[in-house]
Amino acid sequence: MLVRDLIEAHKADLTPAERRLVPYIKDDSLAIELKSITKLAEAADVSTPTVIRFARKLGFDGFPDMQNAIRTELAERIKQPLAKFETKLGAEHERHIVNRFTMHVVENVNRTMNQLDYELFDRVAALLADTDNKIYLRGGKISQASAFHFFNHLQIIRPNVSMLGASPSVWPQTLLDMDDRSVLILFDIRRYEQELERLASLASSQGAKIVLFTDQWGSPIEGIADHCFRAMVEAPSSWDSTIAINLLVEAMIAQIQILSPDKSSKRIREMENMIGVTEIFRKA
Questions:
Q1: pLDDT over 70 for what percent of the chain?
Q2: Residue 122 located in a structural domain
Q3: Which residue from 49, 148, 183, 221 lies 20 to 30 Å from 57 (Cα-Cα)?
Q4: CATH number for the domain that contains residue 33
Q5: Which domain range does residue 157 map to?
Q6: Which of 162, 132, 134 is nearest to 147 (CA)?
Q7: pLDDT reported for residue 149
Q8: Do 117 and 235 belong to one domain?
Q9: H or E stretch including 135?
Q10: Nearest Cα residue to 4 out of 76, 80, 66
Q11: Contact at 8 Å (CB) between 58 and 1?
Q12: Closest Cα to residue 147, out of 242, 218, 33?
């Protein structure tokens, strides 16, 4: 289990002094990775025994054990694509890439489904099925493909769905229109993108609800998001796999249609008619 997940699991057991350590560990892991126990204690304004007790409550033998776990997580989060590829070269000829990739994807899907909160899934589907809500989407450099996939289906089955432009310079106009009937869906996997975190913060300040799709380590946007889905992304490739994320997306699309069968069917028929009409202009 990740350190941030251990914190959530033991949150109720933490003393007020121990809770002061949480921001330095959960939201600023790079800082703690470079700190000694003394410097960490000073930064959080707690005693060194408090740091040790905190680590032990999470299940670690002490501060060094917790620090090593954080270092390992950080190494996975910031691993460059080339470095990922090089770690796999030794086994390149053991099995064909198609089979190895398939095995990883199946494992990713199984692990994603094992940790899925089905009640959360249903709540988000209901939120997105409500046509009184305006939906906005955006992803990162790699995850934008998943965002567009979701957008392409949502706009077919319901109105008021928009994809934010690629340039952050055009986002303020859209942010001005967001309110408590808005939902911003974001896709952010490692290496996490600060522009998306800033977008989430601004949208939230406007009253919008934030739905996040991220990887197993968790984007920093989790601290802002109202609803979050984690999916496994590791693959025998230079790049992370978004197949498990897309599975959640397509299942969500199916559930939205189930919740609003008449409205979605009516919209699809109207769209097909519109396509038929616009064909006249294409041929002209």
A1: 86
A2: yes
A3: 221
A4: 1.10.10.10
A5: 109-274
A6: 162
A7: 96
A8: yes
A9: strand 134-139
A10: 66
A11: no
A12: 242
188-245 residue pLDDT tens: 998 899 999 999 999 999 999 999 999 998 999 999 999 999 999 988 888 889 999 9
Contact 21, 52 (CB under 8 A): no
φ, ψ of residue 216 to 5 degrees: the values are: -70, -20
- Pinpoint the alpha helices (H) of 138-219: 144-157, 171-177, 194-205
In this structure, are 29 and 168 located in the same domain?
no
Q: How far apart are CA 22 and CA 159, in angstroms?
A: 41
Instruction: Count the alpha carbons within 13 Å of 38 in the hemisphere toward its beta carbon.
Output: 0
Q: Is the dihedral of CA 69, 216, 10, 12 positive or negative?
A: positive
Structure tokens at 95: 């099995």
Question: Could you tell me if 137 and 232 lie in one domain?
Answer: yes
* Alpha-carbon distance values, 265 to 95, 132, 259 (Å): 45, 17, 12
Residues 34, 25: Cα–Cα separation, whole Å:
11
pLDDT tens digits, 155-201: 999 999 999 998 999 999 999 999 999 999 999 998 899 999 999 99
Say how many C-beta atoms besides its own lie within 10 A of residue 229's C-beta.
22
Judge whether 224 and 204 are in contact, CB under 8 Å: yes
The structure's pTM equals 0.69
